[in-house]
Amino acid sequence: MPTGGRKPRSASLGEVLEGLLEAGVDFILVGGLAAVIQGAPVTTMDVDIVHSQSAENISRLLAFLKSVEAVHRRLDDKLIEPKERDLSGKGHVLLTTRIGPLDILGAIEGGKSYEELLEHTIEIDFRGHRLRVPKDVNRTQEDFDRSQRQATASCAQRNSAAVGGEICPRGRQRRQRQ
Amino acid sequence: MSEETKIDRQSYVDKGLVTMFLRMSPEERLQANDNAFRTIQELRDAYRRQKTKERKPR
Predict the structure, then answer these.
(1) Inter-chain residue contact A11 with B31, CB threshold 8 Å
(2) Which domains, from first to last, does chain A contain?
């Protein structure tokens, strides 16, 4: 397994969240962390968000990603920075940043986007900012399970179709071996 | 669809994340774990506070 590539200087979920909030990015915390904070008996080491895909928000998100030296999380040593088009679709963008891992989802289960999920969220206080999280624990866990499956499946599909691969690092090494 | 893809669909292992953590020293991994634990506690407390606030009669 390659051991090069960019290594985060720290892996702090709190710093990633705080950075996004300070950058004024509109997003909803989803995935494992959202499930865990509501009591789900799982653990997580990355931050998953669904972001608003307005042009202004994508621009703020890209500026934040640049400031934390984000690159696509890959099995090999290539350093590929996220582009605007990566953040404009419904796919999942899995990143390594210097402050920790961050997964950016264009949509979750059933193709639900930020706008569609908004009514199912509440705001909580986090380090002086308002953070949006899903309000229902069961729903969160389901979404978490589904989004995990979806992320894995979409990456596998993309890799088996030999299309792109930059935003989908998990199956890439396997494809290269074939 | 290949057999490998089928296996991949059932697997939730984020190999990119595993690779990222393997690049860290054991001490850094422990630190990351502590950081995650602290953030989760912080978020859980914030979520609980918000829920309590919502339940309070007006």
Answers:
(1) yes
(2) 13-177 (3.30.460)
Distance CA A169, CA B15 (A): 8
For residue A52, give how far its alpha carbon lies from the nearest alpha carbon of chain B (Å).
22
**Structure-token pair, residue A178:** 């074939």
A153 with B24: Cβ contact below 8 A: no
Q: What tens digit of pLDDT does each residue of B2-50 get?
A: 333 343 444 567 888 888 888 889 999 999 999 999 999 999 999 999 9
- Please give the residue range of the domain that contains residue B34: 25-58
Instruction: Tell me whether A153 touches chain B (CB under 8 Å).
Output: yes
Q: Express each pLDDT in A25-72 by its tens digit.
A: 999 999 999 999 888 888 888 999 999 999 999 999 999 999 999 999
Domain count, chain B: 1
Q: Determine if the pTM surpasses 0.95.
A: no
Q: A127's torsion region: left (phi>0), alpha (psi -120 to 50) or beta?
A: left
**CA–CA gap between residue A171 and residue A175 (Å, rounded):** 6
Give Dmax (Cα) for chain B.
Answer: 59
Does the beta-carbon distance from A122 to B31 stay under 8 Å? Answer: no
The pLDDT of residue B8: 46
Neighbours of A165 (CB within 10 A): 18
What φ, ψ does residue A20 adopt, rounded to 5°?
Answer: -60, -45
Q: B18 lies in a domain?
A: no
